[in-house]
From TrEMBL:
<dbReference type="InterPro" id="IPR014541">
    <property type="entry name" value="Amdntrnsf_FN0238"/>
</dbReference>
<protein>
    <recommendedName>
        <fullName>Amidinotransferase</fullName>
    </recommendedName>
</protein>
<dbReference type="Pfam" id="PF19420">
    <property type="entry name" value="DDAH_eukar"/>
</dbReference>
Amino acid sequence: MSLQAPSVVVMVRPHHFTPNVETVVDNVFQADVPADLRADRVAALAFDEVTAVVDALRHEGIDVHLFEDAGTATPDSVFPNNWFSTHHGGHVAVYPMCTPNRRLERRYDVIDMLKSEFRVQDVIDYSGLEHDDLFLEGTGAMVLDHLDRVAYVARSHRADPIILERFCTNFGFEPMAFDAIDDSGVPIYHTNVLMTVGTSFALIGLDTISDRRRRDEIVERLTESGRDVIALSNAQLGEFAGNAFELTGRHGSITAMSGRARRSLTDDQVARIEASSRIVAVDLPTIELAGGSMRCMLAGIHLPRRAAAVAVHAA
């Protein structure tokens, strides 16, 4: 099992997808639905895009646990990485979500599946902190380096420092927080739209980090961990180039991203990524209207399998 790049993911396929009107206040990556698209057509396109990702990843040997969402109250359910994460040693975290309708995304059938298929030692549930207006939106708010044990976090009200400290203490990470703003001076709402940490490379929108000293510290930390640090422009971040995820397929490492993100990369950036991890791209124009892309759709499973599950998977 790769520490950084899982071979198993959880995905949720929505049947009534629509961009979330409650999150548009601080998610500048969201976009308006084209006027000529009816709601049922938007939902159908999103359904097909999720299906295409599932097919592409399974073709690469990734084990995808796909859950259906037929409800209408959870417009962002396609992004499960925000409400739970899994960790080596059998640990699971459940997170407090900022927007009320996103709290409805938590599904304990997903947790039950994890307990059934994988060795889960404990589930630490921080969601009750929502009542105190404290939020930490999972691996959207945090980009985790499982190898060097660092949690990179762009400061925002979706990444409360109190919960961040608790998480890092409970799960053995060092917090490395920083301020990140876009070209308009607006704080970037989630760290995983500006940063990807793979096994041998890191993608990062360095120009968003306003404190030059902190920026240099982050680059130094990533470089010292043996990674090739690949700088992304703000324009590339707007194309979701920072929202990628390294996985381990049957033939080695792959980096999943959207087609839009892939097209925004230069030849040099592609070559540097593919020196260690082959890019697998799927077009996600409808999903991306909601302000997230490939990384947000994938909840990586870093848990060891139960013996019975290993035997079934091998068969």
